[in-house]
Amino acid sequence: MKRSIVLIVDDDPGVRDTLETILKDCYETVSVSNGLEAIEVVKSMPIDLVLMDINLPHMDGFKAMGEIKKADNDVGILVVSATDNAQKAVHALNIGAYDYIVKPFETEDLLLKVRRYADKLSLKRDVLFLKEELRKNLGYGEIISRTPVMRKVFELVKKVSATASSVLITGESGTGKELIARAIQRLGPRKDRPFIAVNCGAVPAELMESELFGYEKGAFTGAHATRIGKFEYADGGTVFLDEVSTLPLHLQAKLLRVLQEKSFERVGGNREINVDIRVLAATNINIEEAVKRGRFREDLYYRLKVVPIELPPLRDRKEDIPLLAEYFLERHCKKCNKTVKGISGAAISLLSQYPWPGNVRELENLIERLVVLAKDGSEITCDDIPLEVVCPEAETLKFGGEVEDFRKATRAFERRFIINILTKANWNRTLASDIMKVHRNTLLHKMKELGIDNLHPSRRGRTRIAGI
Ligand SMILES: Nc1ncnc2c1ncn2[C@@H]1O[C@H](COP(=O)(O)OP(=O)(O)OP(=O)(O)O)[C@@H](O)[C@H]1O
Ligand SMILES: [Mg+2]
């Protein structure tokens, strides 16, 4: 992985040496002693991050920061100041620094703050890399994940796409079952043949048979002409049976025959129709339970799940949330012709903490809504995230009537308030407690009590991206 380049700006050679020693294991470093040189370096080299002293000769640090941002708005600035002054810190954040640290500092504290920006940068690079990969593999679909469990799914999809075996895709609603089914089709030899999706739950049972198998002229009142069904349409291609568990029992028998003998009769006909189709099926309920209760044929179940693919819910692959959020942001910005600068680290952390009962679909819908509501050129911050995502337990408030409502309301307010201030202070707790006018320990205690302590953007783990 490319190492980030850090520019150290300090007039004290001792401080420059110390910073270089602390950083050299993980980062490339360049050092200068004043603001003018710093601006020159930023203009001539791809600097990722600047560690900026404020009291500098010739030009003060704040002025130099303005010029540096003008030269490269993407560069991250961490102010390393000798004065512990909340107002100066807030000023630094207002003019574009992402954080503030006071000299003398603990090595760990400094590394944490540098890593926080470097992680964000590396996520940005991952997204760019992934977009590039997607562009190169346009036919590969747009399924995004960097979690090991989904990478295994991708490998399975690639392998199974080359075969004609039936695949049963299971997973909660919104986990991407249909997307996976389409990828299997797209990656395989049937890619130029039809992909016919049938939602078994959405078609009334009495119409289902003619929908799937077609009917002969005169099969029933109103059947004025022969009509072919989905299985005939899909000849040579793929039929995707969504919510397959809802298929009535008598049609399950007919489907079994299609799978075994590749033949069926249209409704009201006795001519055998032969087809070459691949069947992919999906369900968001546990079919084994349905088999036990006699609602689903056991032989069909085994026939469908020759290759089972299980999609984990989004809450079990939280590392994907930042990546998916950025991806949907870009997609919906394009769709709405809008420019949104990005999603702040703290807002991403909030999204990562929510359990997403509606999975990826729910996340996509939220991002779409945020894009629609966002001002052009703005950044999405914690303020924009709806209360039910910030504090899911506050949802119950809407229904009222519970004894502990007041406690819940207070908790929801406290949580939101503290997250807002922490965001303003870039998750610098000392600074946040100064702004709130409470003792730092009180803030730390509250953060723990409200479950905000692990929301800090730098606490998130990272793994490599994969996408198909
Ligand atoms: N890994 C992913 N990368 C990008 N987009 C995804 C991913 N997973 C799901 N989506 C998007 O989320 C939405 C829901 O996906 P899909 O329709 O495939 O889910 P599903 O499991 O079939 O849901 P349901 O059970 O409700 O039918 C779609 O818009 C899809 O494009
Ligand atoms: Mg679906």
The count of helical stretches stands at: 19
In percent, how much strand structure appears in the residues? 5-15%
Measure the end-to-end span: 21 Å
Work out the count of structural domains.
3
Query: How would you state the average pLDDT, rounded?
Result: 86
Strand order of the largest sheet: 2-1-3-4-5
Shape descriptor reads elongated
CATH class descriptor name of the largest domain:
Alpha Beta
Radius of gyration: 29 Å
What's the CATH H-level homologous superfamily of the largest domain? P-loop containing nucleotide triphosphate hydrolases
Low-confidence stretches: 135-140, 458-467
Number of strands: 16
Helix content: 40-55%
Could you describe the largest sheet, including whether it forms a barrel? 5 strands, parallel
The CATH topology of the largest domain turns out to be Rossmann fold
SS-derived structural category: alpha/beta
